[in-house]
Amino acid sequence: RVAPSAHVEGAVLGRGVRIGPHAVVRGAVIGDNAAIEPRAVVDGSTLANRVSVDSDATLRACVAKPGANFGSAITQFSMLGRNAVLCPDSGLIDFHLHGDVEVTLDGRRVASGSRLLGGCLGDGAFLGLGVKTPSGQDVPTHCMVIGTPRAPVRDVEEQASR
After folding, report:
1. How do residues 86-130 score in pLDDT, each as one tens digit?
2. How far is the C-alpha of 46 from the C-alpha of 24, rounded, in Å?
3. Shortest CA distance to 35 belongs to which of 47, 46, 44?
4. Which pTM value belongs to this model?
């Protein structure tokens, strides 16, 4: 189901995919039952089954395993594992390198052709609200990274006096 105001160009869509109003999907492969929410942009990315992209999120050159969720405003050159969650206002910070990013292919190091480096969330990993990781870092499988737990918590008495 593609909203009439959505823009889909050069993309492969699986069964049951939902693309919300004013969303843009360009040069992407989207798996079955994935959801691209309103005003989201998915550009040059490969998203597996049941991946969700929150409203207003932008993905460029990302890869996600089944069940992953992108809530961050901008995510580039990054990978999310199975059921990994990237909360709103969090981020896998990317940066521009002076040379190509190298990857391992068939046991040898080769240039990827990219000068940008993002990050990786392992299977079941969780990057909490407002947490930003440095570029090139990964959050291991089943790890949770949260900000200061006390920051969003207020004293009940303080709240009542307002």
Report:
1. 988 887 766 555 566 565 567 777 666 655 567 788 899 998 888
2. 14
3. 47
4. 0.78
